[in-house]
Amino acid sequence: MQTPLTHKLQIRYPILQAPMAGGPTTPELIAAVSNAGGLGNLGAGYLTPEQIDQAIREIKERTAHPFGVNLFVPEPFTESVDEIRQMNNSLNSYRARLGIAQDPEITKYAESFEEQIQAVLDGGVPVCSFTFGIPGASVIEALKQRGTVVIGTATTVEEAIRLEAAGMDAIVAQGSEAGGHRGAFLNRQDEPLIGTMALVPQMIDQVSLPVIAAGGIMDGRGLAASLALGASAVQMGTAFLACPESGAHPVYKQKVLTAHEEETSVTPVYSGKAARGIVTAFMKDMNQYAGEIPPYPIQNALTRDIRQAAAKANNPEYMSLWAGQGVRLATTRSAADIVRHTVDQAMSILNR
Amino acid sequence: MQTPLTHKLQIRYPILQAPMAGGPTTPELIAAVSNAGGLGNLGAGYLTPEQIDQAIREIKERTAHPFGVNLFVPEPFTESVDEIRQMNNSLNSYRARLGIAQDPEITKYAESFEEQIQAVLDGGVPVCSFTFGIPGASVIEALKQRGTVVIGTATTVEEAIRLEAAGMDAIVAQGSEAGGHRGAFLNRQDEPLIGTMALVPQMIDQVSLPVIAAGGIMDGRGLAASLALGASAVQMGTAFLACPESGAHPVYKQKVLTAHEEETSVTPVYSGKAARGIVTAFMKDMNQYAGEIPPYPIQNALTRDIRQAAAKANNPEYMSLWAGQGVRLATTRSAADIVRHTVDQAMSILNR
Questions:
Q1: Based on the structure, what is the number of domains in chain A?
Q2: Which tens digits make up the pLDDT trace of A200-233?
Q3: A254 within a domain of the structure (yes/no)
Q4: What is the largest CA-CA distance in chain B?
Q5: Which residues of B, range 184-243, sit inside 8 Å of A by Cβ?
Q6: Is the ipTM of this complex over 0.95?
Q7: What is the CATH number of the domain that holds A115?
Q8: Which residue range(s) make up the domain with A185?
Q9: A127 to each of A37, A66, A150, A231, how far by Cα in Å?
Q10: B3 pLDDT band (50/70/90 cuts)?
């Protein structure tokens, strides 16, 4: 199961646990995956530099194996006071229902990318991956100088070509099946949502970097299929969401374990950026404001209190339940069991 | 490369050429695929009983191997005179541009399904597949009594379960990557568009019938990947679109050979039913009438003169250019070469 990429990443199996921001990727999960021979990844997009620093230390306490940290590449956004006031008006009805304060004061829309990067550089991280675009050349250079492997995320062939030109070491091909935020950065408004089966071989033919297949891969069948397509590894997120080491909220895990493949949808209503999750009352109801959703990270900051209050009340209908289209195959196995089972099943398929 | 399904279909390789209605599936293409060891399929949804009869005879003149015929299962539709008048008003501007008559008289929206089935029964067809739903029990029974293998099309696990209960012999799992009409029949209005990588294993776990993977499969990598997912065969359409035996219009072939994976979209504007094709000026422009498109088959009949006039004028922008998301991998190889190359590549992947 070794590929040039597993060699470069110094991992035993070509399985990356996806960096699911917002709670699921605990140090326990990351260390369990890395200890099992895969690559655990911290979804650090929403974390403060201090939280990143702390998480890196906790991961290193639990594993001597490589792991990764994922950051969101910021994009410029304009803050419209009117747009925010209007959205807050709309969101206040949900706040009333959840019994929390109207029009909360937002002091910060997003963490400082520069400070997050500094925490990654200071922390001595084996792998750093990026979503939502291409970081500046100085960032890529600084990471590489410290021996960090850098990975970009592409949803089209053209994005992969740009990432290769920017000096990435590998590329995650994010198919339309994938849960969570879409990594599209060249065609954000009207993303073509290309399926993994179509995306991976077309990308492999146009770039020379190793390609990591992501989207709809849930077990050894998906791993074997991805390797057959020419991928050097897979990235699996939803497959780990409901495992004991995942930090996903218990009602979120319950939803993941009972949802069907047709119950997810891509929506911008939680964060201002398209993301795939299990359909909730909030998603359905917010469709009435389509076209009025402020861009990321504004909307993300505006809905934070609602998502947090819903989680506290164990009410999944106002939480973001990011999950991919393979969700029927999610299990409660331990992270190590998921890695082992995936590898064993893929081996038996490829060797039959 | 033999599976229980290839045995049942009496074909050498687990490759079905997709039944692309509207021109591409000439008797030459179908016979070439079947003679090469795959299963050629006639897209007969728009054909008169006489045309079906004629095509079957021409196929049988060219091959002694099995082949299939695909029909569209009709669904009830209501004809609104106002809606049709309004759409014709909108379409008249395209007609003016193409120099054809305004408000053409439509004498028939669709062919008679009963008469089409009779032609298939009379023709002695080895395989009959269906799209857009489940035919009546008497149809399935009559076909099976004549030894015809019956295949249904599903876009979700639930649709596959219904098709199995109805007595189908196999199921095409149509992933979101697939070109042409969406086969969705339980959730037509808000189809979840599940990618092949996610759909195939989830469907296989829930039905006992053989599953044929479709959507984004363009070469031996896609075939090997689909077999790894547990599929019994693949169905490939876009891969055959630009081959010499394909009846696709030359400018359509040219578009297929130059389009990128991100240039397709799912649209109801040509036929009233969602279908994936290369984006055209007509698709973009007609978006202004979203919500006013009459249902299939009405819209299909209303746009027919426009599509035909555009084809005559070699103007791809008003033709329907159905194609899947794997379109970058289309070639001008002969149909037999495509089958051979796909098999050889898959064998070398699976045996390495």
A1: 1
A2: 999 999 999 999 999 999 999 999 999 999 999 9
A3: no
A4: 62
A5: 187, 192-199, 201-202, 205, 213, 215-219, 221-222, 224-230
A6: yes
A7: 3.20.20.70
A8: 4-74+110-248+330-350
A9: 15, 7, 6, 18
A10: confident
